[in-house]
Structures are given as C-alpha cells and as structure tokens.
Amino acid sequence: MIKHIVFWKIHKDGTQEERRQAIDAFRSKTEYLKSVIPQIRQAAVGSNINSGDVFHVCIDSLFDSVEDLEIYINHPEHLKVREFMNQVSYEKTVFDYEF
Description:
The chain is α+β, with helices and mostly antiparallel strands. The chain has helices spanning 16-36, 66-74, 76-88, and strands at residues 2-10, 42-47, 57-63, 89-98.
C-alpha cells in the first residue's frame, strides 16, 4: 500500500473566506476524482485547524501500488485538479510512503 499526502499553502494574500472557498472547491474536485479514477482506494481532504504560517489544506490518499499512484498522478482529470491547485497555492510539499 502507498500513502500519498500533499500539503498546500493557498492564497498567500487571500482572506480566510477565499481560502475556505478554495478548500471547498478542492474537496468537491477530490470527490469527483474518486468517482472517475478507480485506483484511488481512499482520499480525504483536510483543512488545518492551526493558524499562523502553516499549510492550509492537505489530501491524504491511499493506493495499492506505486503503479496505481502513477496512474492517478498522470490521469487527465487529476491534471485538471492539479492545475487548479497550482493556481490557488503558493507552496506545497509531497510525502509518499509504502507500508
């Protein structure tokens, strides 16, 4: 199993409301991805409850294999969501591990 976790900082100069709207949109887009990419075993979007210089949102997802993760990463619908996140974010980090 592969755990894929990505964290973003969004809307550097944005308001809390703009961040909330972006997170809500990302959550909806992730639900859509779960319906069209069968390699996604689980995926949840979370918003950070801490304040300050923190990552604002993350996706915590699960795949059966590295190959399934690669299918997801390169899937055309995922690429659309990634483009959206690139537009609203200014920093991200990725952590993948096998267990």
